[in-house]
Write a structure and sequence with these properties.
The protein is of the alpha+beta class. Helix content is about 25%, strand content about 25%. Helix 1 (about 5-15) runs parallel beside helix 7, helix 4 crosses helix 7 (about 195-215) and helix 6 (about 170-180) crosses helix 7 (about 195-215). The structure holds a DNA duplex (16 and 16 nucleotides).
DNA sequence: AATGGGACCTGCGCGC
DNA sequence: TGCGCGCAGGTCCCAT
């Protein structure tokens, strides 16, 4: 699921509704999702802490806690964070892996069908290996910097956009949508892009991500917002998941192939 | 440096 | 109805 727009949507909702709340209970239903420290220590340490701030870096969500430690959450493919009122059955639903009881009668569930998700409690999020390997945030890019980053790369452009050490936050859906918007074939070597194409790509990255955030992200299967509501951006997808259907721009049939093991959607006529 | 494949997991939809 | 296969918003690790 979650790429930058989805994680950003959750972050913003969390800032509205769980900031300042105290963690009054932690229930670990699947210890495997707790990557550090041990599940027992995780549970014990979180107890009684207050949520002071919510940050995002790439696809990683970071909760700053009252004792200066950080709870980091990576949703990977099927992770969800869903807030509800306390109910007798809260936490018992389907794929709940960890349940956080919060002050004010709220329950935050971390759900994750495939168990790829990772929760960590750390002293400093900046020291996490995953964080240290991340490239710049898309919204921090300057055109000059972006141009330089592309110029030495022989890799095909689509896997490059998804490479978190190159730029952080873009995944399979948005790489496809961005390249469509920039009218660039996903197979093009990065360094082959013309000046004009680089400009179009730079612009498309910011526009697509911004618009996806505005519409609450893309709910295909699992991703939902903090409220449990689905994100609306799927209706704006122009290529992702549209293989066999007509291009909205030129009416050609949208194609799907595989690149680096990932489904790649594109319009063979619009994207050169 | 770049690319492909497999691993980690669970569940869905499809064709037979 | 049931089974096997391919596929899924991510990332890491290994081989070539």
């Amino acid at each position: 699921m979650p790429e930058l727009p989805e994680v950003e949507t959750i972050k913003r909702d969390m800032q509205k509704v769980i900031l300042g709340r105290k963690i009054t209970g932690v229930y670990v239903h699947k210890p495997v999702v707790i990557r550090e420290p041990s599940p027992a220590a995780f549970k014990k340490s979180l107890q009684g802490l207050t949520i002071k701030n919510i940050l995002r870096r790439g696809k990683l969500l970071i909760l700053e806690l009252s004792n200066g430690s950080f709870l980091t959450i990576h949703l990977k493919m099927t992770g969800q964070l869903v807030l509800s009122q306390n109910l007798r059955n809260s936490g018992g639903s389907g794929n709940s892996r960890v349940t956080f009881q919060l002050s004010g009668g709220k329950t935050l569930n971390f759900n994750d069908q495939r168990l790829f998700g990772e929760l960590r409690l750390v002293d400093s999020w900046k020291k996490i290996k995953f964080i240290q390997g991340l490239g710049p945030e898309p919204f921090d890019l300057t055109y000059g910097g972006f141009q330089d980053m592309l110029s030495e790369k022989k890799t095909r452009i689509k896997p490059l956009l998804m490479d978190q050490s190159f730029i952080s936050g873009i995944g399979n859906i948005y790489a496809a949508e961005i390249l469509f918007r920039a009218r660039i074939d996903p197979d093009r070597p990065a360094q082959s892009l013309s000046e004009k194409e680089k400009q179009a790509l730079y612009k498309a990255i910011k526009e697509v991500l911004k618009s996806a955030i505005k519409h609450g992200g893309s709910s295909i299967d699992d991703y939902v917002q903090l409220s449990g509501k689905r994100g609306d951006y799927v209706k704006f997808h122009r290529v992702y998941g549209r293989q066999g259907q007509p291009c909205f721009v030129c009416n050609s049939i949208i194609k799907k192939n595989t690149q680096g093991g990932r489904g790649t959607y594109f319009c063979p006529k619009c994207q050169k």
